[in-house]
Amino acid sequence: MTCFDRRDLGLLLLRLGTGGVLAAHGAQKLLGWFGGHGIEGTGQFMESVGYSPGKASATAAGLAEAGGGTLLALGLATPAAGAAAAGAMVGAAAVHAPSGFFAQAGGYEYAASLALTATGLAVTGPGRLSVDHALGHAVNRNWMVPAAFAVTAAATALVVGARNKRLRKAAEGEQEPLFDA
User: Using CA atoms in the order 36, 94, 122, 32, what is the torsion angle rounded to 10 degrees?
Assistant: First the structure.
């Protein structure tokens, strides 16, 4: 195997693994598959962590994960797929950030890893073992990478910023007890 062949095989494995995990998480949210709670249950959870309206937030997150993950696995529209998946994971990381970095403590480690891998795949490209390559990279042009990430960054900043504002407003007036009873 030449280095070029190894690179393509490595990118395929990264795409299949990362895309498969993301697609499964999205299916949990959208369809209730794999032990998920579907739109209703996920919507209630989204509301409880500050993403409102919950049902719309669950749908958006589920579509970004399932759609972005499926497209990443296929190696199709890789810049948009990677950006969408990364944006969804940044939203998830915002929920887990108060628990610190490590996943075993409820931290954002896992979401950050998926976001960085999806970003790396979007920037690097899918390799020759992909639908993008088979289609002559019609939806995987160099200009699409910064465009996809600019749109995703703006949308993610608005959504996470609105969530943070709601959480701050809900916490106003709440005071920690001065003494433990």
Answer: 10
